[in-house]
Amino acid sequence: MFLNREEAGIRLALKLSKEKIPKDSIIVAIPRGGVIVGKVASEILKIPLSILIVKKIAAPHNPELAIGATGSDGVVFWDENLIGYLDISGKEKDKALSLTIKTIKAREKQLGIKIPDVKRKTTIVVDDGVATGATTIVTSMILKKLGSKKIILATPVISKRTKKELGEHFDKIVSVLTPDDFSAVGEFYREFPQVEDEEVKALLRNN
Asked: Is 198 found in the same domain as 141?
């Protein structure tokens, strides 16, 4: 259990400090909660911080259900099993993808985000917790496309099952807690407030 994202960042940084991480590495945080964890880890480890917006693609007629995830460049991961079960058409997929990319680009503009320079670098992907892994898979796909040399997933909490499933997408996965299973990341935080874009912008300004 963590008090808040700041404490989680400290404990995650201590875990990462035991790894042989090159000095020219970069931390890429997934907003919004991952930015707080990543900022703390970045300051402790003295590694530059950048962010990459990846968003889940909502199912038609059910915005709470994710059928995939994507970034602004159109790199996409689809949950084909769920799509087949829900009988979602190709046209519906295209529409959902287009809408999600449009939303991501608007947020990138609002936050003043530039695509991180990860070419030939060890990249540490940081989030405040990983439940299903769809967004982290897309993140790894984007970073590979951008030329990252080695990709490490670092998170305060990830389930054993998800950690195993994500193993093929990352060179290494570092976590503080690895429970058998869970439904929501917030279960492992005493304080888990929603992070607003203004807070993300402030953290980036002070980076």
From this structure: yes
